[in-house]
């Protein structure tokens, strides 16, 4: 058995691992997002995010990931294709606002066309995904996404108003 | 049917002929009852070696296999007939045993033979035991099968199927294993007779053979029962002082090449012959090493790991991941459905559903076997049962106890009063009849549920039978009919590959399979996508080598990087062919962090280890200002720092902790994943309803770039466009 073990170890010792590899053939670069002026989906923590915000989104970034909204937050995105796209939004109705507002309703519009309405009955994170018809989107100009929340939270300390927390919104596949 | 019988007969006969020569050369004094049994087992070890040599040389064909059988016959006639001393008959079988042993054996032999002759429908036999052998047969010898872990294991017994398969295909192979099943009770009987315990030997033989899991395993193209028979033959020879140590070594080595878990055979036999002196010990070790070495060398050459597919941690290779091995060990060490150890005795002996088979209720008496320690034979049997039972803890499936079962059975028979043994065996026989087992065993217990004599006797076409009765065959048939020669099909779970000439890639049974799974899941699972970007900023400086170090330890996360980019003050540095990419863990995939694709990624494929690194050597110093890493989010505990090697030859830490930003989910991931599969040579994808993402493949075929090539039952076969 020791001999067998010794042989195995000896064989293992003779085996040579590759020293290094060269960079491989580069995949289709046009699908990468590096050079795009506008993203198809805007994570609030993305470096480019501020350039996509239109109205009612507070610029301050929290935890590197999210921003407060006001009542009618809007942002613009650019889709490189229109087929097979889904709208996606990741947002949160925090405990602190929910205690005051109770259940809220959020409407979502794509270029002023009403996509859906979501009633939020409990505080917490909400991920909304919905397929979008091809003719709702265009590749020729930015597409505007607008949210409308029916109830605003008012700070009892300083009277500041807030809607909900937005982590990201846009179109995915 | 004749071809089936011929394939099995020629293989068993060739083994027996080789064994005749070994018995004669070893001057083993055997009775007429012992000689064919030991000749079969010893000869199988020799035949296995010869077939290994032929497969290694790539000279396997119908003609060469027939020639081998003829040479074995001539050798037996020429060198195997040397007169050997006829030993005393030993303790004769007496009393009721004369009336029940052979008839019970014959009834269950008929059951086993009918099952073996029916089309091979066992999960492992039809998929990899014969799938691998079928590939060797088509190729005329060994071929590298890096994408299937089972193809990397030594096939010391399976390679005997090469000869059987050549002439009689699947059923002939199963019949070869069945030959060892039928020999096992007789071998135990002869051992008992020689030790003066004929009744115990007879009882042990039947207790083992009739055990439902032994019966179906031995009647299928598996190898567990063959291993048990080899172990028992080694036990029988080790009890004799005149047995040459090299014969024991031959069997110990053979056992190891049948199953790695039988590594215990050699040290066990060395202890048994310890008093014979160093010459005998050396002969045993030398013979065992001689049998084992070819397989280790083959694995080292084909897979970069002499003990492939295991111990990749010790022998890093491109074909198996450390993380898979850890998961596999955990998976095998405790089966789903088992909540606590106290369930194990019932699960092993009566239910069999959770552990993949049952030994039979009689083995609930196994603890009584400890009383066998009163006799010398009993003590030896108990030790052997423990030795061959120990590896079972690594895989608690019932059939992994089969090598220990003959010894446990012998000890049990020695422990019980002689007068109760016949009744016990008769009860065991009744409880082991398939219709009876069906009444108490768990629904999913692996066992012979039903016999199919018409198709076994080839009164019905086997393919038509399987197409009607067995959904996995319909999947294999779909692959065969809907794809062209040379097709490579990625499958979510194994298909009976031995029934198709196309290659399959199971999504979890190799490094390549796991990579395919990763590619297919990345578009579906956000956590797999490169949604984080880490940016290390530092003062512009000339650097030749940049290295990212991972500093967290011990967590189960697997460190991974989708893209690593170096930045100059003018932007991203274009990659150059002269760069050297390295990684401390699984370096074979390091280029996926430098390919420009968000669907591929380098993964360390092992739990977080502080000090793991990935680096790029630019060949010459370049002025750099930053390094960015796009990574998936499924690595919550990873911590990284950056180091650089300057022109002065000193390593230094670069910048502070990286700044993390978010990235959007990349588009076109599905199509990119399929593109990567095509780069790997995969042409088709088979998905069964219920497998992860099956609905997405169905609903978004155009986004994936796949089209349905065929459908059967709940299974769809897609062509990669």
What does this structure look like?
The complex is a heterodimer of chains A (173) and B (721). Chain A has 173 residues and is mainly beta. Chain A has one domain: Jelly Rolls, CATH 2.60.120. The longest helix of chain A has 13 residues. The model of chain A has no long low-confidence stretch (mean pLDDT 90). The longest helix of chain B has 35 residues. Helices cover 48% and strands 14% of the residues of chain B. In chain B, α1 crosses α7, α5 packs across α7 and α21 crosses α22. The model of chain B has no long low-confidence stretch (mean pLDDT 95). In chain B, the strands form three sheets. In chain B, strands 3, 5, 6, 7, 9, 10, 11 and 12 form an eight-stranded antiparallel β-sheet that branches. Chains A and B meet through α1, β1 and β11 of A and α12, α13, β7, β12 and α24 of B.
User: What is the first-to-last residue Cα distance of chain A?
Assistant: 56 Å
How many alpha or pi helices of chain B? 26
Compute the number of strand runs of chain A: 11
Q: How many runs of DSSP E, i.e. beta strands of chain B?
A: 15
Kindly state the mean pLDDT of chain B as a whole number? 95
**Average pLDDT over all residues of chain A:** 90
């Amino acid at each position: 058995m020791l001999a067998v073990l010794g042989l195995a170890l000896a064989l293992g010792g003779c085996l040579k691992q590759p020293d290094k590899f060269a960079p491989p053939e580069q995949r289709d670069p046009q699908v990468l997002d590096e050079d795009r002026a506008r993203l198809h989906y805007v994570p609030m923590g993305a470096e480019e995010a501020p350039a996509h915000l239109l109205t009612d989104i507070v610029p301050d970034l929290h935890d590197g990931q999210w921003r407060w909204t006001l009542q009618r937050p809007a942002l613009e995105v650019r889709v490189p294709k229109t087929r097979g796209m889904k709208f996606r939004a990741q947002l949160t109705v925090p405990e602190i606002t929910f205690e005051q507002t109770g259940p809220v309703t959020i409407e979502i519009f794509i270029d002023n066309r009403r996509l859906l309405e979501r009633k939020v009955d409990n505080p917490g994170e909400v991920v909304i995904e919905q397929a979008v018809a091809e003719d709702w989107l265009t590749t020729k100009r930015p597409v505007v996404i607008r949210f409308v929340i029916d109830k605003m939270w008012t700070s009892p300390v300083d009277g500041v108003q807030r809607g909900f927390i937005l982590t990201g919104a846009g179109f995915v596949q | 049917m004749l071809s089936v019988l011929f394939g099995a007969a020629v293989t068993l006969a060739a083994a027996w002929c080789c064994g005749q020569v070994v018995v004669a050369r070893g001057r083993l004094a055997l009775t007429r009852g012992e000689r064919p049994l030991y000749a079969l087992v010893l000869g199988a070890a020799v035949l296995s070696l010869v077939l290994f040599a032929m497969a290694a040389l790539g000279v396997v064909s119908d003609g060469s296999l027939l020639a081998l059988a003829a040479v074995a016959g001539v050798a037996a006639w020429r060198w195997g007939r040397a007169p050997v001393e006829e030993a005393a008959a030993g303790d004769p079988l007496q009393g009721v045993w004369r009336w029940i042993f052979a008839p019970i054996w014959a009834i269950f032999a008929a059951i086993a033979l009918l099952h073996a002759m029916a089309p091979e429908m066992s999960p492992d036999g039809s998929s990899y035991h014969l799938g691998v052998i079928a590939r060797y047969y088509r190729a005329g010898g060994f071929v590298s099968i890096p994408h299937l872990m089972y193809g990397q294991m030594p096939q010391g017994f399976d390679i005997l199927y090469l000869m059987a398969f050549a002439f009689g295909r699947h059923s002939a192979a199963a019949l070869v294993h069945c030959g060892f099943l039928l020999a096992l009770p007789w071998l135990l009987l002869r051992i008992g007779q020689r030790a003066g315990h004929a009744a115990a030997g007879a009882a042990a033989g039947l207790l083992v053979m009739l055990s439902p899991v032994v019966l179906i395993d031995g009647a299928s193209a598996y190898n567990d029962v063959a291993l048990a028979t080899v172990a028992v033959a080694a036990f029988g020879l080790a009890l004799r002082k005149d047995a040459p140590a090299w014969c024991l070594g031959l069997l110990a080595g053979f056992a190891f090449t049948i199953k790695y878990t039988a590594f215990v055979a050699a040290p066990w036999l060395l202890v048994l012959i310890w008093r014979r002196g160093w010459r005998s010990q050396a002969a045993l070790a030398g013979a065992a090493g001689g049998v084992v070495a070819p397989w280790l060398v083959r694995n080292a050459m084909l897979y970069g790991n002499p003990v492939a597919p295991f111990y990749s941690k010790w022998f890093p290779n491109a074909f198996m991941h450390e993380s898979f091995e850890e998961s596999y060990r955990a998976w095998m060490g405790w089966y789903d459905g088992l909540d606590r150890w106290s369930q194990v005795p019932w699960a092993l002996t009566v239910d069999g559903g959770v552990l993949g088979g049952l030994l039979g209720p009689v083995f609930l008496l196994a603890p009584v076997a400890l009383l066998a320690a009163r006799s010398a034979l009993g003590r030896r049997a108990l030790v052997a049962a423990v030795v061959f039972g120990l590896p079972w803890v690594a895989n608690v499936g019932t059939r992994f106890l089969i090598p220990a079962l003959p010894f446990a059975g012998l000890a049990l028979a020695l422990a019980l009063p002689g007068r109760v043994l016949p009744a016990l065996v008769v009860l065991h026989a009744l409880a082991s009849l398939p219709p009876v087992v069906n009444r108490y065993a768990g629904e999913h217990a692996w066992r012979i549920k039903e016999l199919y004599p018409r198709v076994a006797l080839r009164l019905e076409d086997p393919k038509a039978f399987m197409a009607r009765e067995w959904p996995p065959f319909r999947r294999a048939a779909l692959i065969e009919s809907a794809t062209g020669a040379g097709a490579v099909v990625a499958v979510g779970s194994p298909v009976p590959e031995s029934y198709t000439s196309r290659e399959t890639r199971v999504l979890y049974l190799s490094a390549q399979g796991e990579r395919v799974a990763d590619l297919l899941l990345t578009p579906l699972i956000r956590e797999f996508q490169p949604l984080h970007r880490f940016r290390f900023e530092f003062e512009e400086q000339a650097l030749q080598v940049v290295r990212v170090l991972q500093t967290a330890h011990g967590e189960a996360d697997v460190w991974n990087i989708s893209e690593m980019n170096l930045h100059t003050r003018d932007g991203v540095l274009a990659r150059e062919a002269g760069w050297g990419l390295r990684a401390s863990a699984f370096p074979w995939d390091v280029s996926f962090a430098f390919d420009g694709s968000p669907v591929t990624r380098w993964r360390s494929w092992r739990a977080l280890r502080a000090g793991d690194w990935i680096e790029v050597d630019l060949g010459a110093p370049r002025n750099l200002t930053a390094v960015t890493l796009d990574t998936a989010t499924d690595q919550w505990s990873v911590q990284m720092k950056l180091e650089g090697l300057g022109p002065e030859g000193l390593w230094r830490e670069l910048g502070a902790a990286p700044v993390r930003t978010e990235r959007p989910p990349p588009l076109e991931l599905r199509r990119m994943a399929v593109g990567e599969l095509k780069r790997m040579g995969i042409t088709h994808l088979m998905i069964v309803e219920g497998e992860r993402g099956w609905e997405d493949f169905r609903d978004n075929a155009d986004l994936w770039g796949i089209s349905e090539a065929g459908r059967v039952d709940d299974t769809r076969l897609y062509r990669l466009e």
